[in-house]
Amino acid sequence: MQKPQLNATYEQSIAIDNARLGQSFKVVAYAGTGKTTTLQMISNAMPERRGMYLAFNKAIASEAQQKFHRNVDSRTFHSLAYRSVPREITDKLRLPRLSPSFVAKEYRLEPITLRRLMGGRYEQYVLMPSRLASIVVNAVGYFCSTNSQYPAPRHIQAPSWLHADDIAALQQHLYPALERRWLDSINPQHQAGIGHDIYLKLWALSEPYIPADYVLFDEAQDADPLMLGILLKQQNTQVIYVGDAHQQIYAWRGAINAMQKLPLPESRLTTSFRFGDEIADVANALLGGLNETVPLHGNPNQKSSVYNKPHTKKRDAILCRTNARAMELLLAGLVNGDKVSLQADHGKISKFIDAATILKQGKRVTDVPELAWFNSWHDVHEYCETHEGSDIKPLVKLVDDHGTSPLKKALEKITPIIDADYVISTAHKAKGLEWERVHLEDDYQFKLNQHDYKISDEELRLLYVAATRAKTSLNIHHIYDLVQRLKVKMPASLRKRSQPATTPEKNTV
Fold first, then answer.
1. What angle do CA 241, 282, 37 make, to 5 degrees?
2. Radius of gyration of the chain (CA)
3. Which of 305, 320, 427, 456 is deepest in the core (most CB within 10 A)?
């Protein structure tokens, strides 16, 4: 099928010219700046060369395949690995997984007594075999995301509440089980199921060759060391890393932000097709807090407005920080008779609610990491009052206030997105999406005093992602004061609304 001709902007032309040189480089693409369209233009400019577009999930890769010419293959890392790893390994995907209790029994794990921080003091705590087995299984997953050649004690990640002096003891105690679990995972004769990370790691260890003259690596800021290591070893292949360092919101998964770390030439896409200057101003305030000096420009052809108002009916999406706040808004919407859709992690919320039910019955939880360390719901309450427990405190309060049964019923009453009055989403789940009218919720974490503010880089990146989902209307009521403080300290290069390097063309969107 003949792809439509696209008119390149000035910035897009620079990226295309860099691609024609045949050397690896980075395209720093701010929110809504036509990243996918630019990649399409790059591939169209090199029709004789074999290209490979790499995405993080199958849906994005399949959608991209429709946009590129036939000499470009769109895939995920996992699909490349699946075709290359021996079938007897990938067949293990269909086998039942070992439960933590089964792993503990098979590997003869023994309890170990360590020191746990609770309520500001350390107390003796016995880690039982099933808990130890969960740590071992997680350690295999962490090893698989690294560029390491073989599992080591450092891949065993200790709980955050553990006394620092006990970390090495735990790692030495569990290392034999970690090594055995990895070897069993890659042994075709061992009849236990594996996850997709196992065959991906095996493929990476085989020093794979990606069959392409050039690779377009999308969302490169979210790459883990394993993926980056594979690409860096492609000796004669041009790799074009595309992404936005400020949209890296998955560091907790092991992402290492290739957009900042790779010492490569770069071009930039700085003019948004999605929103106008008013929303760009808010984004620039957040970028300034992240020490960015290159501004994001609004689309001069797009009229956008920023509001400082409490909740109004004029919204298409409400973006929260946490699953707990999303559930609160869902319940409130259902009480009001609204047709509400939820773009949050349904499965994670549901599993947390189920685990809370089990704990309340006096049983132990093994498959929900947030609750796996506790013997009772009372223990969970104690943990919530510590600094480490602040993340799960909203969900615990939600269970206490509403009960597990009403929460489960609320999840069953979610309206399909196409029929909903509005969507409630976490900022993480909103990444890559857009709505006409967006309202930012009140659960983002920062502190303000009379003269200053305190906010982490992680939180600023999350707010940047959330704010840039809006096209025509952005309600910043709950972060308005923060934005004003950020604007006071903005670098001069971001403060003035300068003329964009290019005017977006209508047919490039």
1. 35
2. 24
3. 320
